[in-house]
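Ticket 4471: requesting a sanity check on a complex prediction with pyridoxal-5'-phosphate. Repro inputs:
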Amino acid sequence: MSYFRSDLTNLPAYVAGKPGSDPSIIKLSSNEMPFGTLPAVRSVLDRDLDTLNAYPDMGAVAMRKAIADFHGVDIAQVAVSNGSVNMIEKIVDAVCDPGTEVVMAWRSFEAYPIAVTLAGAVSIQVPVTDDGEHDLAAMAEAVTDKTRAILLCSPNNPTGTAFTHTELEDFLGRVDSSIPVILDEAYIDFARLEDPVRSEELLQSHPNLIILRTFSKVYSLAGLRIGYTLAQAEVAEVLRAIATPFGVNTLAQAAAIAALGDTDEVRKRSDFIVSERERVLEALDGLGYKIPRSQGNFVWFAMTDVELFVEVANRHLITVRPFAGDGVRVTIGNEEANDRIIAAAKEYSQRG
Ligand SMILES: *Cc1c(COP(=O)(O)O)cnc(C)c1O
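Returned structure tokens:
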């Protein structure tokens, strides 16, 4: 359409997992949790259902306080958003001028290049290693005087790999502190590393670090659209100022507080996903696949022949997420779903 900027005509479409119409098919294409709404969340939603004539708390004060307490940071360091993708777009837009650059790993989250293009900037995509890991050394070298931000994703969607605290600290030491480093930790609750990133600690020593979290994954609230950001107080203040007014709705604010408080159930859910992920990875190893050691709630099959894999998966009544020419991402689901992943992978490996 002619009234849009010419650089937006080739914007890659964000491909959402197909919604399931057939109840016998299990959707493993959007990294959703296989559990329903947390019981603790359900009860606060009921409580607030009759107050929807009023606008939500503009400052999301109670929600921000709960997040600050959860992370042991000051409430001034917290900003909230209508999903974390919304905040990614806001930050990138706020730091980029037309023609400037944003460094990211690739493949990584497909929402990143869309946000960068929307801001009129250019994505500098640094290939992940053969093991699907961020090549942090190459990313530090890709920084130029045009760089306005660096986007990191750990665990990385779609390859699943995560970097350690030491690796991130080394990287931050190499990057000029005038460049914001945006760390997307959407899947951090599924990571079980020896040396996990302690992001709150790094926030103290690295004022250019901006941390993104979401309620869409382990908290099983993708349908309610809630994300948040931790940063230096001065940075978070700007993020609150540029946020869409009333972007986080009343139910979402209440749900976020309840979800953060339900630590036992949330831990149970993440432990289940982790143990099933390890079971699937072990089975795939046994079938001869070389799958990156995922730290997320999904596994990554690097392959060029994605269409055939998708077809085999569909025959086993699971939908998966293809990335043309690169590979297929498959969400870890309930036990039955994961048995189907293994069965489909087995059939695919014995093809032809
Ligand atoms: C799922 C996901 C998110 C969450 O986005 P929301 O807008 O909060 O639902 C963020 N980053 C990555 C890499 C994701 O995969």
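Notes from triage: The CA atoms of residues 163 and 176 lie 20 Å apart. Leaving this open until the requester confirms.
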